[in-house]
Amino acid sequence: MDETTGSADEAILVVFTVGDGVYGVDVSQVREIASMHDTTPMPDAPDYVDGVTNLRGQVTTVTNLRRRFGLPDKENDDRSRVIVVEPDGVPVGMVVDSVSEVLRMPADAIEPVPDILMESGGAEIDSEYIEGVGKLGDGALIILLDLEKLLAAA
Questions:
Q1: What is the homologous superfamily of the domain 10-150 according to CATH?
Q2: Is the pTM of the predicted complex or chain greater than 0.70?
Q3: Is 16 within 8 Å of 99 (Cβ atoms)?
Q4: How many C-beta atoms surround the C-beta of residue 50 within 10 A?
Q5: Euclidean distance between CA atoms 103 and 33, whole angstroms
Q6: DSSP symbol at 43
Q7: Do 62 and 81 form a contact (C-beta atoms < 8 A)?
Q8: Which of 38, 72, 128, 142 would bridge with 24, disulfide CB 3.0–4.6 Å?
């Protein structure tokens, strides 16, 4: 079995927090997890784009998921990270509050987005960015994000 993609009956997720939410993205879309870097603002960029930075010799757009989700800004600290993802082969950094783990989740523990969220537009984030909801053994939930839709405008 390929360590980065899991099998058809499980998902391997990078789990992180933004505000009070716990989110996950498929590990196969994650290039690296880096400490915070200085960014250079870009004119006329969406408000959730912090700017660009030089990561390992490559200019990378950096987005702030707190702003993307409509949450208040907070000062970055020693737990803040930039998750560099490549949903369409183009690297984009996502500033998150913390990264907690890489988690194997059985496919049958992942459910589609509840209809009520699809109809209401969701409470904390726009439901169009949600791929599904993962259930952990202790009853906790992980919101699985669709990176292509989430980062489309970045």
A1: CheA-289, Domain 4 (2.40.50.180)
A2: yes
A3: yes
A4: 22
A5: 15
A6: T
A7: no
A8: 142
pLDDT of residue 31: 94
Residue 38, token pair as written in the block = 């200085």
Task: Give 12-36 pLDDT, tens digit per residue.
Answer: 999 999 999 999 999 999 999 999 8
Cβ contacts of residue 111 below 8 Å, gap of 6+? Answer: 132, 133, 134, 135
Residue closest to 76 by CA, chosen among 102, 53, 103, 94: 94
> Which residue, 150, 101, 102, 94, is CA-closest to 122?
150
- Which pairing describes strands 92-96 and 141-145: parallel, antiparallel, or unpaired? unpaired
| 32-67 per-position pLDDT tens digit | 999 988 999 999 999 999 999 998 888 999 999 999
Q: Which two tokens stand for residue 21?
A: 């939410």
Give the pLDDT mean for 91-97: 95
Tokens 């408000």 -> residue: 47
Token pair of 120 as six digits? 């209401």
